[in-house]
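Example for tutorial group B:
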């Protein structure tokens, strides 16, 4: 009962320029959040096969099959693709689905009326808000899955299936972490979307939402739009990369004449008050560089999330904290700030870990939920990615030679079986 992933391959964000034939697409799933729409789908490719050791080879005349409950199912080979869109531009998502011929990427529900058989899985608040829009424009019915269930399901899937998924970011160095499946639980999942949810995960389908904060990605983007002239989240994030938060933030050294507050281990460079210098300076907003404003804002929110996350991990004695959601975007400064906050408050006892496919947890959870329902083309839930031969091991770390930004859109090569 196993499907395999062959690895990770770079793709353009829109899934590539080639439209796939309807019979090559299956199991389109959506996570429609307050800020972004995340989309996941499987495309079939029968040109290769995988043996028991994970080796790829040309496929023979007869497709491989897997047995389950005295029944034989064909193994299909292909890739899981990812794409994202701003929720306020939902029509761009509709156009993408139409142009890439993903209209048949859902499944047929045997018990539904004929007019409602074309169903795709969806989660997030937008699955309710935009249900009529998808029905009217594309003839697709959104079968809604619980948002938190999908987040946990997606995270568990990635942590178990993709070896190069979780990583730490310390002093500018990314280190992939090898996850021991027998020692995965419990952990804290911090999903940073428009707001932030913190979930204590104890196993497959076993979790509770233990906390959260309304200061999240939506806060950064909303305040950023008001304080700068940025037109997109990514533009604001890039702007922050060019800024200096010390121009606006009040530091411990500003209060103590350039000295540390060593009694409590506070360095002179520690932020005492975000945006605090604006109090004592006779300046207007236009007198500050937008780059510095964006940097200070990002630092404030990232540090706050990191601290609150650790305090919740401390409540339950959790040593590992996984951060997901599209707020991070593989951005070095964001990851560094969160990591420093967790390390500082835990005195090095807790780890902040990030996920390569951080923004697609909910969409992947919705994708995996097809197996729970009475649909044609049931997908197996277990996928196993083969570790790259170029990776080297050192203790519990994997030092990967994979190049490029970790948050570039990717596709995962995999095989699945269907009924």
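The residue assignment follows.
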């Amino acid at each position: 009962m196993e499907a395999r992933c062959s690895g990770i391959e770079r793709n353009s964000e829109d899934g590539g320029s080639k439209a796939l034939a309807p019979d090559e697409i299956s199991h389109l799933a959506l996570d429609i959040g307050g800020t972004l729409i995340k989309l996941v789908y499987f495309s079939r490719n029968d040109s290769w096969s995988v043996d028991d050791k994970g080796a790829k080879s040309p496929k023979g005349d007869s497709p491989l099959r897997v047995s389950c409950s005295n029944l034989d199912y064909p193994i299909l080979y292909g890739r899981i693709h990812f794409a994202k869109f701003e929720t306020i531009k939902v029509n761009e998502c509709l156009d993408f689905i139409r142009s890439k011929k993903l209209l048949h990427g859902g499944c047929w529900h045997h018990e539904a009326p004929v007019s409602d058989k074309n169903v795709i899985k969806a989660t997030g608040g937008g699955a309710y808000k935009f249900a009529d829009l998808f029905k009217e424009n594309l003839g697709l019915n959104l079968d809604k899955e619980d948002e938190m269930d999908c987040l946990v399901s997606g995270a568990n899937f990635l942590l178990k299936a993709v070896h190069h998924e979780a990583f730490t970011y310390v002093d500018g160095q990314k280190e992939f972490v090898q996850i021991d499946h027998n020692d995965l639980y419990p952990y804290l999942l911090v999903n940073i979307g428009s707001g932030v949810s913190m979930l204590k995960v104890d196993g497959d389908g076993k979790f509770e939402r233990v906390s959260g904060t309304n200061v999240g990605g939506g806060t950064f983007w909303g305040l950023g739009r008001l304080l700068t002239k940025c037109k997109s989240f990514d533009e604001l994030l890039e702007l922050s990369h060019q800024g200096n938060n010390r121009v606006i933030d009040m530091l411990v050294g500003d209060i103590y004449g350039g000295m540390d507050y060593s009694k409590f281990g506070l360095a002179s460079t520690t932020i005492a008050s975000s945006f605090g210098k604006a109090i004592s300076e006779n300046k207007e907003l236009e007198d500050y560089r937008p780059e510095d404003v964006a940097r200070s804002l990002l630092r404030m929110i990232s540090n706050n999330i990191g601290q609150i996350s650790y305090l919740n991990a401390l409540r339950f004695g959790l040593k590992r904290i996984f951060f997901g959601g599209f707020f991070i975007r593989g951005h070095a400064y964001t990851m560094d700030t969160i990591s420093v906050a967790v390390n500082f408050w835990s005195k090095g006892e807790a780890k902040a870990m990030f996920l390569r496919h951080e923004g697609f947890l909910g969409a992947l959870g919705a994708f995996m939920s097809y197996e729970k329902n009475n649909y044609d083309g049931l997908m197996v839930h277990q996928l196993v990615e083969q570790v790259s031969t170029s990776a080297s091991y050192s203790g519990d770390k994997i030092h990967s030679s994979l190049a490029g930004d970790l948050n570039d859109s990717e596709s995962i090569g995999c095989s699945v079986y269907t009924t």
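The CA atoms of residues 243 and 291 lie 4 Å apart. Compare this with the pattern of hydrophobic and polar residues in the output above.
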